[in-house]
Amino acid sequence: MKVLFVCLGNICRSPTAEGVFRHYVEQAGLSDQVTIDSAGTSDWHIGKTPDPRTIAAAAQRGYDVSTLRGRQATAEDFNEFDLILAMDQSNLANLQTIQPAHSKAELALYLPRFNISPDEVPDPYYGGEDGFELVLDMLEQASQALLNEVKARL
Ligand code: 4NP
What we know:
Layout: E1 2-7, H1 13-27, E2 35-40, H2 52-60, H3 77-80, E3 83-86, H4 89-98, E4 106-109, H5 110-113, H6 129-153
Helix pairs in contact: 1-6, 2-6
This protein binds 4-nitrophenyl phosphate.
4-nitrophenyl phosphate binds next to loops.
């Protein structure tokens, strides 16, 4: 099963989602059965490491996202991945504009897809460090729900 997380810049929310979920999948012993990646809807940070605040906040909880590099989501992703999970409504709308007709992937807003509220993982880029903690809290909760679904589907 292949899962892609998408935000705007691919330096804050989606690399965190990738790092957290990869950890959960490793802990479950399912790494060889699940492919995990992340991307941005923008081309602003292609090839860049996650934001230093993202790396630091993730590391404090035991997730290493320092080796990840930014990339932009593409139309091809819709035939590569099974599940494409957008962090907010704007990301979802942007993905819908590049989604090919009849492609493989299910496209959804991440938190509502697993009945978690609020609807959006808020963009922490222009805020303080507590924003990164909130992102981690939300993504840990969502990762557990996503892992449960992955286990049921494998
Ligand atoms: P992300 O956060 O979408 O969670 O990676 C952002 C990163 C960069 C910018 C905005 C949001 N930016 O304006 O450069």
